[in-house]
Records
---
Amino acid sequence: MSFILNDHQQLSLFDSLTFLSERKQKMLESSWAHQFSQEIFVNINEMLFAPLYSSSTNSRPNAPINVIVGA
């Protein structure tokens, strides 16, 4: 697998959060998941894991490291 940095900061146009009701959005913002996302997930340094992957661009891209570590 080749290493590709995950650009996780931007939401997609079809992100499921935009379709939540205002009540459910507030519930999500007050949950542990929101804190985890804001404090831990975004601070996982993926570059620390880059040497574990192939430098060849012909190989399959990696799964996002912050998703794997944060799971």
---
Amino acid sequence: PWQGEVTQIKHHWWWKINRVFDQLRVTANFNGFVLFLEEDYYVAPDILYTLRLMVNFAAVNCPSCNSFHLGTFTRSLSYQEHATKVSVGQWNNLGLSFNR
């Protein structure tokens, strides 16, 4: 069944992705990974470095991985305990990154 909230989120992301990949001159010839962040996100200073590590790791260990999420909705997560870990999981839109 049709769910308005889900449809709205899909349209939001569809517009944003098309705008970045197809309409902006600055990204017209860029084929690397783009990190999509909402305006109310806080990020760690090493977020781009971490993304680069994830992309390089996936190229060797998970060739079918085509998007990277640099955040989690899990509020009880101990960041100090899990700082060196990467997980393969379900899609979410928190710190989403992918390429063309």
---
Amino acid sequence: MKQADRTIIEKMIGYCDQISAMMERFGRDLESFRQDKAYQYAVSMCILQIGELINRLSPEVMETNVQVPWRLIRAMRNVFAHDYDRTKPLTVWQTITEDIPALRAQLLSMLDEESDTRQ
């Protein structure tokens, strides 16, 4: 894996961690999320940034890691960037409670596998 790809993946993990930190700060329940626009906007910006970072990954990384739903993440980024008023709090909530932890685990696994092959 190229260093540039590794750096991008580390940044993506950082945004996943920021989402988790916001959940700790604002609340880990759907009702808190629905009631707080700042909470919604904050996690949405992190999701948008994750999607933006995907655009910088090399095709090789995406082709060798087909378990990651790159296209879906990129599509969600486009909705956040260009059609935000279409997003529903429940969809965003499901993303941050289900998809983001799964993505974080996949990204960490990619880095672990890459480290194993370098040794």
